[in-house]
Amino acid sequence: MTDRKAIISVQNLVKHYGDFKAVQGLSFDVYENEIFGLLGPNGAGKTTTLEIIETLRSKTSGQVLVNGLNVETDANAIKQIIGVQLQAAGYYPNLNLLELLKLFSGLYGVDVSPIEMLAKVNLQDKAKAKYKELSGGQKQRFSIATTLINSPKIIFLDEPTTGLDPQARRNLWDLITEIRNNGTTVVITTHYMDEAEQLCDRVAFVEAGKIIALDTPDQLIDNLIASGFERKKEVKAANLEDVFINLTGKEWRE
Amino acid sequence: MSKTYNHTKATLALAKASFRSITRSPSAVIFTLAFPLIFIVVFGFIGGGGVKLDVAVLPGSDLQNPIIAALEKTGVVRLTKNDTQQNIDKSLEKGAYDAVISIEKNPNGLPAYYTNVKYTSASLTNGNVLKSVLNDVVGKLNTVNQKPTVTEVRATTVTGREYRTIDFILPGQLGFSLLSTGVFGTAFIFFALRQNLVIKRFFATPVRRSSIVLGEAIARIGFALLGALFIIIIGHFAFNFTLINGAVTVINMLVLALIGVVVFMGFGFVVSGLAKSESTIPPISNIITLPQFLLSGTFFSINAFPSWLQPISRALPLTYLNDAMRKVAFEGAGLWDVKQQILIMLVWGVGIYAVAVKTFKWE
Hints:
The structure holds 2 protein chains of 2 kinds.
Chain A: E1 6-17, E2 20-31, E3 35-39, H1 46-53, E4 61-66, E5 69-70, H2 75-81, E6 82-85, H3 97-108, H4 114-120, H5 136-148, E7 154-158, H6 166-181, E8 185-190, H7 193-199, E9 202-207, E10 210-215, H8 217-226, H9 240-248
Parallel strand pairs in A: 3-8, 3-9, 6-7, 7-8
Antiparallel strand pairs in A: 1-2, 1-4, 4-5, 9-10
Helix pairs in contact in A: 3-4, 5-6
Chain B: H1 7-23, H2 26-46, E1 53-57, H3 66-74, E2 77-80, H4 85-94, E3 99-105, E4 113-119, H5 124-142, H6 165-195, H7 198-203, H8 209-239, H9 247-274, H10 281-295, H11 310-313, H12 317-331, H13 339-359
Parallel strand pairs in B: 1-2, 1-3
Antiparallel strand pairs in B: 3-4
């Protein structure tokens, strides 16, 4: 796994908001066609880092290359090859999902069939619904549909599963894995470690604007065990979420 | 994927989305169409056909005589013949009747009839009108088959354009409609787009900022002009609103409407930038729209205002839009004839957009 091509390369990234140092010298690469997780507590600088890579925010110093393009000089070219899902973003008022997707295909300058885009995220039944009428899981799936319109090389998902019930969360994992399997690189932030463990090929832990660990979930766990760590409680073959899923079924509730 | 990005396509996609959104927004439809139409309907009916005199005929009065017949023929006097004495007295005091009339046959020969009229101080103006109507009617009746001894008045009336209430009210309502669409609509949409991070999501696409503003403007201007056209058409066909040069007048009015709504949208941009929360948009917008609504000659001619108030009226952009609209619609003025009004609106436009550039916020 050492010769993989980096599609995103972040070197010594620094972002200051006045006196507040949100990001303090981050460096990492995201490889082509992997699911890369940025993990860390609130305020660690995850969203700021994402938004700098997405060209939505300026950086204080450092270098960021996306598919070989510089965020400072090639912002528009980058925007054409990435898909962005923002934390808690809304959509244009009074429009249904089909109309919103038409708007986005106009904004990206591509011709796509809105209903096919909805089918990709299994929302074709909601074509005429308004965004605010959707459930939490449906909203996230719709947001992901808008990120896929321009057939991007990379999509960025900022806490896509926050607030979802276990069924909706698993459903979204399947969707994200499918998108990766179709050749798209995925960068995701999350607070859920079980999610990162199951979904991500590699994860970076961000704390106070710095990366404190970066590896595959497996390797990070092995490293910890090797250092002599033991869980206080005996690990069982199943956890409470397994019980929940087992009792309430896998089918996703609308 | 190296195909060049088309900014026009992005702008038009936004314009289309925005237009759809506006037509589904209840407040936009109410302010642009419903309110102005309600005022037009109300004033359209009130301002029907000039002066009408309400005159009661006293019970017991002779009804089959040339005086009654001649009064009815004038078309100005509305005679009520079957009211009770008691009711007539009450209505007379309140001014609901302008006068009461009773006609007696003269049993002693000439004159053939006595006409008794009682006026009321509650309606002196109409009483005076009735007085001259009666003099006219009676004079004509008395001189039937007689050569006038001193002079005969030969009066003719030039057939001029009738300036109806609608001719005053409609342009004012049109201006009000454009003001509301421009200020409220623009302020709300840009605030909402900013607040709900819709604009931020747009920024993650290759769209330009100018495309966002332009797309929004095209939709809003399109909607405002369609609204204006609708109001003009309803006014013309349902209430005889005067369009002196027909279609040319309509086009001139739409050009004025365009200038107006562009200027008013500038206020909207400023409000969207100043507003700290959604609930502060209406009060700030009202500070801008209400004074213009009341002082810019929307309902009354500003000449009717006290002289200290008139300079304020003459400083407001809506005053000049209303003024220009009325000149174009009723007097048949061309756009060049109202260049002064247009110029003042443009000066306002330059000023307000200079402020808007300073106050507008994207995030």
